[in-house]
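[step 3/7] inverse_fold.run input=structure_tokens len=205
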């Protein structure tokens, strides 16, 4: 089972979105929610971009092979192809003009669970290469931000990168929020802004 970070905030939330939806309030919180349930297939990326992303996630794939029951049903040499065939992505438009900021999702029922909380990564893609932007942590799944169904994207003045909120289904009526903010090229876990947590809570009513 996926070893994922525990959400910082647990809310009753009925926010169903197929693609992207702007969520805002008078409190000053503006969030664009991206559902990864209808993300683009990884194969639709240019071949060179695929190669860069896969190189950045090479250690994560090895870690995944140790956890994913799908690896026991195929030869180890074939697992990489299986893993790649189940990848999807969303392009976050608020990245810098000379790069792409991708959310990569491993959409396999062997790892997503009954609530469709699939492993996800935040990858910075440039002309020279790619970087998984969450530092490796042994107690979790490599550089994954955790398991979820979508991300919230929020612009902040202190960074050229948006603050990201991992959205995780805890049950049919509860969603967990875990927030990440870029610092020196890495996305690090931070407390979610109270006004945004209140906004999601308000929408659930």
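[step 3/7] decode complete -> sequence:
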């Amino acid at each position: 089972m996926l070893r994922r970070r525990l959400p910082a905030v647990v809310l009753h939330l009925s926010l169903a979105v197929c693609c992207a939806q702007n969520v805002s309030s008078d409190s000053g919180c503006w969030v664009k929610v991206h559902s990864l349930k209808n993300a683009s297939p990884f194969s639709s990326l240019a071949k060179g971009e695929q190669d860069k992303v896969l190189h950045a996630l090479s250690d994560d794939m090895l870690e995944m092979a140790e956890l994913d029951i799908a690896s026991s049903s195929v030869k180890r040499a074939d697992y990489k192809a299986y893993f790649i065939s189940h990848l999807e992505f969303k392009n976050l438009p608020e990245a810098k003009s000379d790069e792409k900021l991708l959310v990569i999702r491993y959409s396999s029922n062997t790892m997503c669970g009954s609530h469709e909380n699939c492993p996800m990564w935040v990858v910075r893609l440039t002309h020279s290469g790619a970087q998984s932007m969450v530092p490796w942590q042994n107690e979790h799944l490599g550089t994954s931000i955790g398991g979820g169904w979508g991300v919230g994207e929020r612009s902040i003045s202190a960074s050229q990168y948006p603050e990201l909120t991992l959205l995780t289904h805890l049950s049919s009526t509860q969603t967990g929020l875990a927030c990440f903010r870029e610092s020196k090229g890495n996305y690090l876990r931070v407390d979610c802004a109270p006004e945004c947590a209140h906004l999601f809570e308000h929408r659930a009513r």
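[step 4/7] annotate
The CA atoms of residues 89 and 113 lie 19 Å apart.
Residues 9-203 form one domain.
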